[in-house]
Every structure is written in structure tokens, then in C-alpha cells.
Design brief:
Number of strands: 16
CATH superfamily: Spore Coat Polysaccharide Biosynthesis Protein SpsA, Chain A
CATH class: Alpha Beta
Number of helices: 12
Strand content: 15-25%
CATH architecture: Alpha-Beta Complex
Distance between the termini: 44 Å
Structural class: alpha/beta
Order of helices and strands: HEHEHEHEEEHEHHEEEHHEEEEEHHEH
Number of domains: 1
Largest sheet: 9 strands, mixed
Strand order of the largest sheet: 3-2-1-4-10-7-11-9-8
CATH topology: Spore Coat Polysaccharide Biosynthesis Protein SpsA, Chain A
Length: 347
């Protein structure tokens, strides 16, 4: 792989800079697990670290961030999710940017970021890479569509891009054997919400800023319509991109409440049960090296959440099919705390 980057940087080389950008709001325990696991799991020689926090009032959160001397920038600003991502993309100096919420913990350690950068450098049809573990039902929907669904996807792709430009799902590997799967025609190749994904910074800047299209959107849509607006722009530009996902998941949503809401805060109310890591440490999930995880690899699809996530001192809430629970708190809101007046008027 070194030869690939030496060709791009002939005068002494080095790896392209990657900006790790974290969006934070009132979840210090999650944020700490995310940042500390990122430091432990990401081995890469050229990183920029940025945290943008929504001026949180949770006790200890600002003190924790101000004590992280290894961060390049820490920004406290009350703003919408869309505005925070715009600020992150505008601030990033990396050629690639990882936009990351604080409720996704890294679980796999190694120098795999070199392979992700190589994939984006050498496959122009890949718009973004998602690092987090997916539910099994999601993987089956993407990689095992029925005949009818397969033909519908093919028809839409050929109609939009023509036969030779259609997006085809495939298994690809780097020079070192790091394996990924592409999504083909399953989606538009860009995560409209921005999170959690690794992407060329130039693509975000070319698409332009996230714009709030629906200020009255449901609680679940933290982007307030900006996500759908971004996908509309991708389609209008005719970008023939697809998403990719590692064969071995590198991170996982922090799910430790009974309804799977991840303790989000909306309009001053916390939804779901917010707790520090039950094991008494920093992490919610056990960390493993990439080499150790390779023994569980399958040939037909990426590993699912239930196959690779090992919670510490708690059980993952699951649905009837055994997948990790994914709840909509629009349908069954539950809260265990209302935050102070400073927070109530915000998003």
C-alpha cells in the first residue's frame, strides 16, 4: 500500500490527512467511550481531531473535553445538527473527513484506516464508507434482495445511469487483503445525515452545506429535513456513487437502554435510559484487534452487529428476531430526565 501513497506524495510521502470530526450533545459517557476507543483503535499517522459540542450543560462534559489536550480543536456552540456538520466540513483540513456521532463506539483496533483511505483513493465510484456494525436484517436487505427487488434496483439504475454506469454490489480488497463490500444500487452512495461515514471532504464541499428543509420534522429526524435535501442534491447532480462497508465492523452503536433509543436529547428531554458504562470502566463494548476478529469472517456478507459486539456487564436489547433493538421514540417516547432551562429551548 505504501507505493500507492508514494506515487501521490513523491517528495517524502506520508499519508493523506484524515479529519476525525465528532458531533456531541449532552452524552458525556458516550462521548468519552467514543473518543477514548478512537484513540485506542485508530492507528494512522496523519490525523486531525475536532469535537463540536452543542454547548452541553451536562456536568463534567466540558471539563472532560477541555482536559483532552490531544484534540486539535474543541468547539462549543449551540446550533442544529445540520449547522454543526457544516461547521465541521468547513473547519476540516483533511483530504478525508470522518463525521461521527458520540453514540457510536469503536470496537476494532488496528491500522485499518490506511485501507479505508486506499479504497477511497483507488475506487472513484465509492462515495462513502460506513464503519459501524449493521443489524442482520439490514445486511439481508442490502445483500440478499429477492428477485423482484433485485430487478427493480437494476431497472432504476439502468434508467438513471445507463447499463455501463450502473452501480453493482461487489466484494473488494486492498493490497493488504482488507475486505469490503459495496452496496450497489441499494442507496445513493452518500449518507445524507453525514453520520457515521468516512468520505472525501471535497465531495461534501461540492454538494454544499446541509440546509434545514423542515423545521417541524419529527423528533427522530435530528437533521430537520437536511438529510433528505442532501440526497436530493446528490440525485440532481447525477452522482453515480455507492456506499461501502468493511467485512469486519469497526464500530457499533451504543445500545444499553431497554428501548434502544441511545439516550438522545430532543428539545430539552432525554429519551431512553442514560447510564455510564455498567462495567465501571470507560467502554460499553470490548475492544478487539482486527487480526483477532478475522476468525469470525463470513464469505457471503459482512459480519452483523450481533456477531461481533461484546457488551461489558450488560445485555444488548434485542427484537423478536434476535437483532439488536432499534426503536423510534416518536412512537413510544420515554424519558428519565428533563434538562435545565438552558437546554429546553434548543434542539
Amino acid at each position: 500500500m505504501a507505493d500507492i501513497f508514494q506515487k501521490k506524495f513523491p517528495k517524502g510521502g506520508g499519508y493523506p490527512k484524515v479529519t476525525l470530526g465528532f458531533i456531541s450533545c449532552e452524552r458525556m459517557h458516550y462521548l468519552r467511550a467514543t473518543l477514548e476507543s478512537a484513540r485506542e483503535c485508530i492507528e494512522y499517522p496523519n490525523l486531525e481531531w475536532i469535537v463540536i459540542d452543542d454547548d452541553s450543560v451536562e456536568p463534567g462534559l466540558k471539563d472532560y473535553l477541555e482536559g483532552c489536550g490531544w484534540l486539535d480543536q474543541t468547539i462549543f456552540c449551540r446550533q442544529t445538527h445540520a449547522e454543526a456538520m457544516n461547521q465541521l466540513v468547513a473547519t476540516a483540513t483533511g483530504e478525508f473527513v470522518l463525521i461521527w456521532p458520540e453514540d457510536v463506539q469503536f470496537i476494532t483496533g488496528g491500522d485499518w484506516l490506511k485501507d479505508l483511505v486506499e479504497i477511497l483513493e483507488t475506487h472513484s465510484d465509492i462515495g462513502c464508507i460506513c464503519l459501524d456494525a449493521q443489524r442482520l436484517c439490514t445486511l439481508h436487505t442490502i445483500f440478499r434482495p429477492g428477485t423482484r427487488e433485485y430487478l427493480l434496483r437494476l431497472y432504476r439504475e439502468v434508467r438513471r445511469f445507463g447499463w455501463h454506469q450502473r452501480r453493482r454490489s461487489r466484494k473488494i480488497s486492498t493490497a493488504r487483503g482488507f475486505t469490503m463490500w459495496t452496496y450497489g444500487a441499494y442507496n445513493d452512495g452518500v449518507v445524507g445525515s453525514g453520520i457515521p461515514s468516512l468520505m472525501r471532504t471535497a465531495i461534501w464541499r461540492d454538494l454544499g452545506p446541509w440546509r434545514i428543509a423542515n423545521p417541524d420534522a419529527r423528533l427522530i429526524d435530528s437533521s430537520l429535513g437536511a438529510e433528505d435535501d442532501m440526497i436530493d442534491r446528490v440525485r440532481k447532480k447525477g452522482l453515480c456513487l455507492q456506499m461501502a462497508i468493511p467485512q469486519i465492523p469497526l464500530a457499533a452503536d451504543i445500545i444499553n437502554d431497554a428501548i434502544g433509543c441511545k439516550a438522545k436529547v430532543r428539545k430539552g428531554i432525554r429519551y431512553g435510559n442514560y447510564t455510564r458504562p455498567p462495567g465501571g470502566g470507560v467502554y460499553y463494548y470490548q475492544l478487539q484487534s482486527y487480526a483477532d476478529r478475522k476468525s469470525a469472517v463470513r464469505d457471503d456478507r459482512p459480519l452483523s452487529f450481533s456477531e461481533c459486539v461484546q457488551p461489558i456487564s450488560f445485555e444488548i436489547p434485542k427484537d423478536a428476531a434476535g437483532d439488536r433493538l432499534k426503536a423510534s421514540f416518536n412512537e413510544q417516547p420515554q424519558c428519565n430526565v428533563r434538562l435545565d432551562e438552558k437546554r429546553r429551548d434548543g434542539a
